[in-house]
Amino acid sequence: MQSREILVETVDLVKHFPLSSGLFKRVKGAVKAVDGVSIKVFKGETLGLVGESGCGKSTLGRLIIKLLKPTKGIIKFDGVDITKIPDKEFRPYRRRMQIIFQDPYASLNPRLTVSGIIGEAFKVHRLVHSKQEQKERIKGLLETVGLAAEHADRYPHEFSGGQRQRIGIARALAVNPEFIVADEPISALDVSIRAQILNLMVDLQEKFKLTYLFIAHDLSVIKHISDRVAVMYLGRIVELAEKNELFSKPLHPYTQALLSSVPVPDPELRQDRLILKGEVPSPINPPTGCRFHPRCRYAKDVCVNVVPEFREVLKEHYVECHLAPDLQ
Amino acid sequence: MKESSALLVVKDLKTYFLTKPKPIRAVDDVSFSIKQGETLGLVGESGSGKTMTALSILRLLPRFAKIVQGEILFNGKDLVKVSESEIREIRGNEISMIFQDPMTSLNPVYNVGFQISEAILAHKKMLRSEVSQRVLELLRLVGIPSPEKRMKDFPHEFSGGMRQRIMIAMAIACNPKLLIADEPTTALDVTIQAQVLELMRDLRAKIGTSILLITHDLGVIAEMCDRVAVMYAGQIVEYADVYSLFKNPAHPYTSGLLRSLPGLNVGLGKKLYSIEGVVPDMINIPAGCRFHPRCEKAFDRCRVEVPPFYNVGSRQYARCFLYSDLECKVEKY
Asked: Tens of pLDDT along A265-300?
């Protein structure tokens, strides 16, 4: 990160999914999927977003590129507040931000050929002017992601999971985006295929100067690909730091337990783990004070009553914990 | 490996899907053994035949799949040959299984207490009061809080991790000698996975069950297993104790897998080692060594001849011609 120019920024972003029931669909509370997230993504970096299922990481990813409407808060892209601008004015921004989905089986239209899937983006954004040009660009894109030109006329079902994910990546790249949200792009793939896709994503980042928000639950993948890492728990970012800093000096007790529970592929490193008690509470009624306190082994009275502040404890190392500086 | 000490010996097992025009060789010549109290890991990618191997042991195969060859000796009894009623006696009693997805493997219309007691009553004659005592004891053992209340609850009232605990309670209800765990933690989050793995380790220490642990996660293997069998396209390609496997992987597939894991590689910066190509289609299995199209070290012989096992270390076997000069070809291990 040489130039620390901010590409994407969220301010106190909130997304509540209302729960309604009964004849008149009366709202009876809400799933607080994202509950006050302020993050910055710098140009050219990979920000890793890690957390367990249901913590709101995918919702956050979708909010940032406006696939979901936030309940509250602001999203800025390249300095411009894009939260409330009308669709028509938003379109040029849509071209600059793309997403790669987790499930390469569900995210490609089975009734379109590969060139149809990729070509759709050209049509929507009027990026090509002739059929010949479109054909050339699709061919180029397929080669960029490691497929062959003759794959253009095939349908998604003719491809393996890894190849489909390559198609998903080609579709995202079609509009020359600057920012890509990668929502668990490799977790549905076989172990021996994951490295191929990760390498491809790293190559593309260098080639096209991309900025990634990389969402995953697998810590080793996050550690490999990210520059900075944000840890999410129950709708909030609880820790954010440069990758090596976070993995060597986790300050939040949740991060500590999360890092400790990953099985290490080396039998000589079998060790006693910090095993968290209990489970993630429901995001409908998150605990008072610090959301992690019912599972935290250090919890004190203040944690039960007061919501901790997300603050810079060490240089560029943010933690949302009352006790953080003393927990190294 | 002396067979006398082994609880389960699988010999030359072949399980095929009898499709037309030619069968799909889902499990092709698989042999391994598990000793009393031992945990054997079966690792491989999707479609490599891990689950079919497990289902063959319990004879729970889908309709078109048949065991076409081989022996499965459990306590000296060949499970391939025993009658349907005999295998029913063994299933859930001496050998039980935990499935990957705890949501779909529990019955949604019965409470969990009833489902666990069903597993007990299938094999033991007990009074109703004794059974509910036992159910409570099992729920306590797998760490379900306030079991008296929870045993009346239905599966949907439990979280994923809790459901997997209930599956485990059901599986150990009759103190099985062998527990087959098919991806028991794949559907769970890491912190819950750590809880369930710890529970399995505890139970192994308390009841002394042998475990056949099927997973694609090499981290889980390293954490839990004594010995490991690596499967690729229906065959075991490497069979070794867990320390040798992770320290000196012999088969190019095993070493490729280990090198491609993020977090372990060194020196290459952001580039990971990757095994090129795709997992083979089981209908058109490559000739010769099944891994040769993806293998960096493949030579002519690999393309035509099926490699046998070579004894590459004290208790390490690899199905690979790289070791053919070691003069240690083995028919059986």
From this structure: 888 888 778 888 887 888 888 999 999 999 998 999
Determine contact: B276 vs chain A, CB below 8 A: yes
In B, which residues are within 8 Å of A262 by CB distance? 190, 219
Q: pLDDT digit string (tens) for B217-236? A: 999 999 999 999 999 999 99
Mean of the per-residue pLDDT values for chain B?
90
Size of interface A-B (CB pairs under 8 A): 122
Asked if the C-beta of A259 comes within 8 angstroms of chain B's C-beta atoms, the answer is no
Which stretches within B184-307 are classed as H helix?
190-207, 218-224, 242-247, 252-259, 300-304
User: Does the pLDDT value for residue B269 go beyond 80?
Assistant: no
A249 touches chain B (CB under 8 A): no
- Secondary structure, 3-state, A18-30: EEEECCCCEEEEE
Which among B252, B238, B255 has a CA at the least distance from the CA of B296?
B252
Q: In A, which residues are within 8 Å of B189 by CB distance?
A: 52-53, 217, 280
The answer to whether residues B97 and B51 touch, using CB atoms and an 8 Å cutoff, is no
> CA A65, A218, B171, B230: dihedral to nearest 10 degrees?
130
> What single string gives the DSSP state of each residue in A56-83?
SHHHHHHHHTTSS--SEEEEEETTEE-S
Find, in chain A, the residue whose alpha carbon is nearest to that of B45.
Answer: A190
